[in-house]
Write a structure and sequence with these properties.
Shape: elongated
Distance between the termini: 28 Å
Oligomer: single chain
Number of helices: 5
Number of domains: 1
Structural class: mainly alpha
Strand content: under 5%
Largest sheet: none
């Protein structure tokens, strides 16, 4: 039940990610056209908007990657074959993501408060707009990796019960 909800939530994030990528194309195209053709005036705020959108794309994409298991992890051993080694391999990765998620959540709150006291140069937008992505992503990493860790344990227990 929770897995279905989280799967649909991540589907919504994928849609948001696609919309954000599409939105990013607009200010980038405006920059390119104005810089190389002179057909439209140079808008300095487009660079800031592109940066804001890019930050959100990275953070949303990282959350989806945690759910899909396509995040970056380094395997120093070959893929696990037995239930214990598989639990160790996957569990260590998910625990590490949970630790970093907790750090991003905890320190991201202070980071957001810091950004809330600043404004961007061109758009005069409150920088908490981008800074808040850090604790949000951290909290979601913690939640999704925690769920995947519980799945790892359940899979280990079911395989262990099937062997006995």
């Amino acid at each position: 039940m929770i897995g279905i909800f989280l799967d649909r939530f991540c589907l919504g994030l994928r849609i948001l990610l696609g919309l954000t990528m599409g939105a990013l194309a607009i200010p980038v195209a405006m920059q390119v056209v104005s810089r190389y053709t002179g057909l439209i005036p140079t808008f300095l705020w487009t660079e800031e908007l592109a940066t804001f959108l890019f930050v959100w794309i990275v953070m949303i994409g990282s959350v989806v990657a945690v759910w899909d298991g396509t995040h970056f992890d380094v395997r120093i051993t070959r893929d696990a074959r037995g239930p214990v080694t598989q639990l160790l391999q996957n569990g260590i990765v998910h625990l590490a993501i949970m630790v970093f998620g907790a750090l991003f959540l905890f320190y991201g709150i202070e980071h957001t408060a810091f950004g809330g006291n600043q404004r961007s140069v061109m758009m005069r937008a409150n920088l908490a707009i981008t800074h808040v992505s850090v604790p949000i992503a951290g909290g979601l990493w913690l939640l999704l990796a925690g769920y995947r860790f519980c799945e790892d344990i359940a899979q280990f227990l079911s395989r262990k019960n099937n062997l006995t």
